[in-house]
Each structure stands twice: as structure tokens, then as C-alpha cells.
From TrEMBL:
Domain Glycosyl transferase family positions: 227-351
Keyword Transcription regulation applies: no
Domain of life: Bacteria
Protein name (database record): Glycosyltransferase involved in cell wall bisynthesis
Organism: Evansella caseinilytica
SUPFAM superfamilies, per database record: UDP-Glycosyltransferase/glycogen phosphorylase (SSF53756)
Amino acid sequence: MHEKLFPCVVCLNHRYFPESANAANVVGATSFALNVIECLEKQKLLSGIILYKRDESIKVPILDEHQTKGHLIFTLRFNFNMKPICIKKSIEEALLKMKLKQQIPYYPIVYYQTDTLMKYHPDYIPSVVTHHGPFVDDFIKHYSFSEACVAYETVEKTKHLIKYQKEGLSSLIKLKNAYVLQHSELQRKYLIASGFNEKKILKITPPIQTPCTNQSHIRKAILDFTNPNADNLIFISTVARIDHFKNIDLFVKSSLILLEQNLPVKIFIAGDRLHFDSNREALYQLIPRKHEEKFFICESLSKNELYSLFCLLKQRAVFVCTSRYETLGITPLEASLSGVYTVAPDIESVEASRYMPENCKYSYTVSGLAKHLQHIYSSEIYRSKYQYYFVNNRLSYNKFEKSLLCGLEKISNELHSLLISH
């Protein structure tokens, strides 16, 4: 354990805490939080976990203590109609119990996955938040309010998110001992423009892990479709959720242009949970019957299956990122560092693009992507290792760990100074 570093408590939505280490991520931001937990555990800096859960059937917060996978966990059930002071006291109670169990003289730093509970956070206890977004206001600046309503599904939900994100940001700005772990320039610019103290923003290298696992993790139907002995070039896109932000429609429409030219390509898409198949069905509706056999669309892959697929397809496939707005985007970077040639939109609202060489970015239109994929097919650049070395020079799991610990060291030093001065 780093003696100078304050221990930490991780707070996240209970839905995003996986049942197993191999479970598919419900949202992309889950991966970041779980890597934070892994790093803190390794350094013996993890005091416990708070999982919050909305429950409209109760009138006061309920705090349950239990042990899961060796973690001390408090599940906080609450709803937004409760008195803020009641929720705040429940958070204080959980943190005090962790402090006493750890037998430490001061409260641990609370790492929040997002700002949902920041307005209830006790001001005297240090906190840090990643704040993944997507920020509705910032999305509107890049696109429009009407498109935001499409992305967030309804006008009411969009306005609700704007309101609560502003409240969360306002709470974050007011907290004396609050810091932000910056995982993207998109995030940094928005927070500074909104009035957050730039000196309290700590840059973190994204946590990218690329374990190579064997083919036994890949189900037979996928192995048959991606047959390594066939001559087809495979285009793939895997996401936690198929939604307006990921814009998988663009990928399908661009792929159809290549299929109309009789190019020997196949398209593999994975996204959404198993029983939520409406978005996958909507993608199939875009595909003419004559090309259906060239597509394989299934639910999100487990981590083992995803990494195994990347290992199987390196230097014989192309990962296609089609997001229109993404404050990080871990999977495209994992694909690239696994040796799968990856392309991303040439737009500033997609953070993953910042890590890519210029020739791996495409004009963000159906024809622009189709033209780029045609060039990749004809030039066979996907066989090159140049992109891998380019991205590997900028990203690694070790760089993430080092940057996280450096950030926590800076926070700890400032907190120690405050303790001494008082």
C-alpha cells in the first residue's frame, strides 16, 4: 500500500456492477470504473464500494451492508423525492463505517463513476468523479436540441437530463474537496467552460486492456461466420448499446455499398443485451434479403468472447467506430491494441479519434466511410502493424495505473497539507 495515498471508496450504479468479471459491460463507462477498482485493489487502497439503487417504493433511504467477491459493499436504496439531507446522512453513515473498519484516522476519497450523487456528497469528505457524460448541453452544441431529443428518446427525458446534469455540475463546482479524473479532452473543455476549476482536473490515461484468450471462448456460430480460412475481409463493430450515439446505421449502409460492388466482405455487429433485440431487428430491416447472409448481428459479447474474437481477427479484419458523440470509447482502442485495424470518424466529438493516425479517420458520411473501407480493402493496409505501434505508444494499462496513482497522489498531498494546516 502507498503510505501517502488516501484509501478510496468507489460509488457506482448497482446495475453497472457485474455479476462476474467476464460479464459484458452494460454501458461503456462501466469498464473505466471496474479498472479503477482493479487498480485500487492491487495497491490495497480500496476501502469498499457503495452501490446506489433507485427505489420508488420507499420514503427514506435504506442502507444494506454485505460482502461480495471479497468487497465490503453498501447498497444505498433511495429516490430523488427524498430529502437531500437524508440521502447525505446515509452516504456519511456508509463512509464512517468503512473508515472505522479500516481503522484509518481520516475519511477515504470517494470515487464517483458519475455525478448522480454528488449533490448529496458531504462537503468535508474528499471526492473525485470521472463524469463520463454524454453531456446533453455539449451534444446540443455539436448537433442540435432536436437531435438530442432523438438521442435521448424524448423531449421530456432530454430536458430532465439537462436539468439534472446542470444540478450535478453545480454541486461539483461548489464542493471544496472535489476533483475530476479527466479521461478526454471533450470532457475537460466542457467542464472548464462550465466553471470548474482547471487545477482540480487530473488527466488520466484511458484503461485499455487487451488480454489474448483462446478461441474456445467464441461460440461456434461466430467462428463459422468469421472463418479464418476464408478470404473474406471482416468488418466488425461491437458496442454496449445500439443507440443514436453509436450510429450503427451508418456502418450498415456503408457496408451495403461495398456489397453492391461484389467485394468479398462480411459484417459482424454485436450490441445490446440478449433479450433487448428491437434495435438489432431495426438494423436487419436496413439489409436487403440478398445480402442478409453477409451480416451477423447478435447481443453484446462477454469480455472473454470479445477479446478472443479480436485475437482471432487481428490483421484480417477492420473494427469500425461510427459514434457521433463519445467522451471516450474504450472498445475501438481495445480493438486497435489487439491488432485489429480500427477506423474512427474524423470529428472532434469522438475522443477515440484523438489516438488514431490521420489515415485511420474517415469523412463522417455514408459515402465517406464506404470510400475509406474500399481503400482499406484494396490497399490491404489492415495487415500493417503501423496503427498498433502508433496507438500502443500512447495507451497501455500500465500508463493508466501510473496516471491514476499520480492523480491520487496529488489529491492526497493536498489533503495532507489541509490536515496539517488545521
